[in-house]
Amino acid sequence: MRRDILRAEERHPATSVTEAAYHPKLPAGPRAGSRRQLMVVLGLFSSDILLALAMWLVAFVLQGVLGRWPLSAIAIASIVPNVAAWIGLRAALGLYPGYGLDQVQELRRQTYALLASLTIITVFAFASQLSSSISRVFLFAWTLGLLLVAPLARHFVKAMLMRAGWWGKPV
Q: Which ranges constitute the DSSP H helices of 67-168?
């Protein structure tokens, strides 16, 4: 083998390392990590909002089946603040994006966020003397639905983000 003919890796070792780190599905550039993280946060955030609203819809149907009276206007108007409290607590506990959390810690934080939002809703309802206008069946159905479905939904959203190349780091 002649010395003047070298393989590409031997001539430009940094080029081969750069090419090996390149992933075609990931954005390139200096702000690629922040854009990718923004997409992950938006994906998790929007899926949580849709899930919370879907659970309110299920609770509304359950209230119609099991309840004896229709929901009050106050109960319907409380949906948006309740969802905002739940999402805000999830953000405060570090679940967006939630990198570095193992499954147990993530489930613990999700449960804490849900129970804290239920506590906030209940305390606010009793403090403002609106406890008779908010249905207990409605609130219990929403809480139970989110307790059971939110971890599964987050798992599936993370799996979709992995397939898209936005969750995790290529190794």
A: 73-77, 79-92, 103-127, 136-164
